Protein 1
Amino acid sequence: MYMFKYVSKRLGLMIFTFFIIFTMSFVLIKLLPIPTTALPGQDPKVVMKTLEGRGWITNIQEGENGVWTYDRVPIFIQFGLYIKRIVTQGDFGIVTTYGEYLNMNIWKVFVSHLPPTILINIYSTLIGVPIGLGLGILAALKKNKWQDQVINVIIILLISVPSIVMALMLQYVFCFKLGWFPLTMSTSNDYFTWEVFRSMIPAVFALCLGSIAGYARYTRAELSEVLTGEFMLLARTKGLTKRQAIFRHAMRNSMVVIFPSILSEFISVLSGSLIIEKMFGINGVGGLYLNSITFQDYDFFMLLSGFYTLVSLAAGIVIDISYGFIDQRFRMGAKYDVSSEL
């Protein structure tokens, strides 16, 4: 019951926070100049009528020398129309200035580019988590020995070098010099073929190397602290072997901190994949996000901003709730009664 109340409260706060961020983004975007310039091959009148149909402008008039005049619709009226279309029609808008997808449904374009983004993040997590946890466990068990020193050096290097620099090094060495992988991802939509997976590998490692260092650091720090706890000495005196004490008690207690860090690292990787996708030519959501800014396609930018904001907010709830499932001693939302101890 306590957990249900806690989750309900957090969901309500998440929706409220998302609405505030979404509203602020919409208002700030609408303060920018409206892109009314017709692209090559476009009829300026069609462009203006499209903007009027979307509720952006009104009172359109064609002046002398082909100069168009119009009045802006008040921002909050635009926002009301925008929310109404999303709720009642599922209409997130059409592409107005992003030339490659001009006049296409924004939601359909977004969904078609979502699989590559999700896949490279899932692959990076599946590779990074076991390697990072393994290095962290080894470093904790061999603390202050040569294995620990080597792993610490690797962790420092991976954390210090920016992911963009690491990506360039991977491209240069493994794609350009050695020729083991293509420089950019395959354009095929058969995402589960070997050819496509092979073309994803450089981007996946560029994303997960930093995560490996993070997992290893968290695991080493937490497991080293748990191994020195008094309950570990008690477990050994009760007859458990060192291996049994580690896997039955030390690992379980350390996972209370380690597991939420895995979730937070996944979200940070998802956010960091924007630049990596661009560098490796991955036709995912990250490229759409950056190009929507370049082409000043405001409806496209709003959808993608909402997507990344919602993912980040949802991750915070998942991380908090995970504590209660990993360690039953946590009771999210319960109030501690001091008088019961008196």
Protein 2
Amino acid sequence: MNRLEELYYEAKADKWFKRFAVFCRVALAASFIPAGYVKIAGERFAAGLPSNNPLGHYFDALHVTGYYYTFIGIAQIITAILLLIPRTSLLGALMYFAFIVNICVLTYATRFDGTRGITFMLLASLFLLAWNYDRLKHILPFKQPETEPPVLKRPLGVRLRIWFFGGSLAIIAFIIIGTSIYMR
């Protein structure tokens, strides 16, 4: 067992990380429910975005695809529901990641003003995938020794939380500064 896995299992046992994982699941699901509903209802997504904006033009084209547009809405609602159910949250996180990577690339390509928010959603999705590493490691292309979760040799305790949440704040600051420069 390497040190990174020890840190992973320590984080999995920490109540603050568990709460953060639940917060991410609920927040990501809450972002997909209204977006999916708009598509199922047949309304144009982001109706306030003008058609002369590159992303608005994309949404106009997507809206006229008919049942594909509805299919995306249904898939978003299903993904949100899967995220909210603890037993199916990994499947929801995998589906959400597929959606949000596409959306993130699209918003950067069109220099959309909401790119920061989409990037934060991508990071939350990545956190959920990392949170489920113990369930995903069996399909990853790395050699995995079969071991039980270890007894930690050198637990970090509160320092692990400080490193994680401090690092998260640093990443958020980097994204805000980076997108401010990029969007000029």
Protein 3
Amino acid sequence: MEKIKLFFSAGEASGDLHAGALMAALVRESASRGAAVEFTYLGGDEMERAAGCPPVVHYREMAFMGFADVLRNLGKVRRNLGAAIRAMERTRPDAVVLVDYPSFNLRLARHAFSMGIPVYYFIAPKVWAWKKWRVRQLRRYCRKVLSILPFETDFFRNHGVEVEYVGNPSVAEVDERLRHTPERSGLCLRAGLAADTPYLLLAPGSRRSEIAKNLPVMLAAAAGAPQYPVIIAAAPGIEPEYYRAFTQAPMLAGETFALMARAEAALVTSGTATLECALCGTPQVVCYRGGGSRLVYNIMKRILTIPYVSLPNLIVSEEIVPEMLMHLCTPDAVRRRLLDILPGAPGRDAQLRGYADLRRRLTGSDAPARAARAIIDGLPE
């Protein structure tokens, strides 16, 4: 049986989830063609399940975000990159598949290109929003971008990047997770609330700096709806005592998706969680306090080349979820938008109609299977 050797790199939890599904699809697709796949990878548990072997580096050792975090861990970043390059040189894969995590993965793309190994990028860097100069690297080093966002394909084509829209995996992933999500009564009891209490979810982010800026605003805004107690989605790796410096409100760790799916409404820090929240059908207000200054906001408006920052709005090309950003992210402003999406309020039905439109745009394609076919079709005979 022919053997196909593939090298994968994913640097955080969501990348591990998407890469794991793609790797499983590659196993199925190659088997249908009478071949077997051998994986070498940087990633996590989902990828290990698909590959049947441990990672070269687990993403827990790679998940550094922001300039300061990377600078503090520069030695570890360099060691991880060295380990990845050595593994690539040792295994000489037929193709390299990169999943998001651009600062690190584009360095791997350059090295793979220098070795003559074709590079595929699944879940590409958001160069259409910021760091547009990275599009030159994608054009030079990558054989093809396997896009999961329908609006970004025109951008890549217009910049000379080979791109194929393979569909978005989030709908299928969310629907599968919803089938196994615990009921609200159990979540409430574990959080210390009465069974089946309608609650608001606060998802202030996964980093300490995000939590420190966003959580106080969210708590103050949620106080305007006292009939709904809050539950905080605590991030893995952040000790409960950190949150207790801000509040004694109930919290659960490692349950963000379940809490989101069963909440009456949610205040969500800008990021991929906004798309998951929309696909769960939970009304939300997108919050990002950041530095909170008008100056920083105006600078970011000049840097960003897109009209929105949250994925639901970008995909639908209109504001279906309110975005409260920087100096606009105040308790009063967030409270007004929150009250408008609670049960019985007019904004709730409007947002749910937007969610239905979002689902229609993303449903209808098995993204991992299409991406797997694109990769294997591109390999030399």
